[in-house]
């Protein structure tokens, strides 16, 4: 297909596609003449993945280029690629004092051990959870932390469902695409569902006669 058709099928403007090509995010088309090139489904899939990583995942061009380079590495595993992708989707957060954070770290390590999670202790996602737990401690929300294990159990169920869906996909790019969209938009969807459930539960508890 010509670049105009590629633009129509991906809903990405031609100048943006050319920019992706120049930045090495999308492979060049096959030249048919000096100023003409053709593209195929491979280019379409890559553009959709780039859009997911940048527009939905919020990744930089440099980080996206690095991830795509790993994706094109025939020795890269699905597990390692998903790990690198999810790591880059982690939001930044504020740090608290060392004592509070040390207590939070011990709590998180205990949780991971009790759940039997097979996770590298040096995974930066540990730091994300530790900082969140520490922030809740600093705010005096200890009663909410008492249900951390319940949250972990719910997270296990969500993770199992997510992986069951994306693992049915045939190619690695589609798996990564689904993981990004599922993590970012799926996370927002879970927050919205949680909020609606809160509204319903609150009404039942505090306005039982309504």
From TrEMBL:
Gene3D superfamilies: 1.10.1660.10. It comes from the Bacteria. The keyword DNA-binding applies. Residues 1-70 form the HTH merR-type domain. Keywords: DNA-binding. The keyword DNA-binding applies. PROSITE patterns: HTH_MERR_2. This is MerR family transcriptional regulator. It comes from Tenggerimyces flavus.
